[in-house]
Specification:
With 198 residues, this protein is of the alpha/beta class. It contains five helices and six strands.
Length: 198
């Protein structure tokens, strides 16, 4: 059986990815199994460019077919920030709580009542020679709460209420989140691609 490397060490992401594409005819492996592989740089201006760069980097580093995503939160009142800097918004070694705290602080400084936001996800799959086989994107529209709610998910999930719901991603079950989230929407397209190719 062919293997697919999931280009992340984030346990939350690995869990989400496996839940959605776990039934494809590929052995899913993660970067947690590869201690010697460096972390890919994410210095592009778009989610798609970062996803491609990461997929190519991990595919070349391991000699495996690799999947990598780049995702983040875009808040209207902050001009689309934190955007591609979502994971590094509060500094390199900040915690999820640090990032959430900074986001709420920056949002309160704007004096803007607009709480609209969206989660964006781009996923790329690359072969060991760096050839990109597939790019999929997903978006989930919603709004930002005034304080974190819920213990589920990771990152900005406890601050984000998706349209059509009253609960944050930090409160919604995996079952619901894995149908409506930005990553779920991108991964559903990835799953269809993998099923057709493998």
């Amino acid at each position: 059986m062919c293997s697919l490397l999931l280009g992340t060490r984030n346990p939350g992401k690995i869990h989400e990815i496996k839940l959605i594409i776990g039934d494809v005819d590929l052995e899913l492996r993660s970067l947690q199994e590869f201690d010697g592989v460096d972390v890919a740089e994410e210095n592009a201006d778009t989610f798609v460019e970062n996803a491609i760069a990461k997929a190519q980097f991990y595919a070349r580093a391991t000699g495996m077919l690799a999947l990598a995503d780049d995702s983040g939160l875009e808040v209207e009142a902050l001009g689309g920030a934190p955007g591609v800097l979502s994971a590094r918004y509060a500094g390199e070694h900040a915690t999820d709580a640090d990032r959430r705290g900074l986001l709420l602080s920056e949002l309160s400084k704007t004096g803007n009542e607009n709480r609209r936001a969206r989660f964006v996800c781009a996923i790329a799959i690359a072969e060991a020679d760096g050839q990109v086989l597939n790019i999929s994107e997903g978006i989930c529209e919603g709004s930002i709460t005034f304080a974190p709610r819920g213990e589920l998910g990771f990152g900005y999930d406890p601050l984000f209420v998706p349209d059509g719901y009253d609960q944050t991603f930090g409160e919604l079950s995996d079952d619901i989140k894995n149908r409506i989230s930005h990553r779920a929407r991108a991964l559903t397209k990835v799953r269809a691609f993998l099923k057709s190719e493998f």
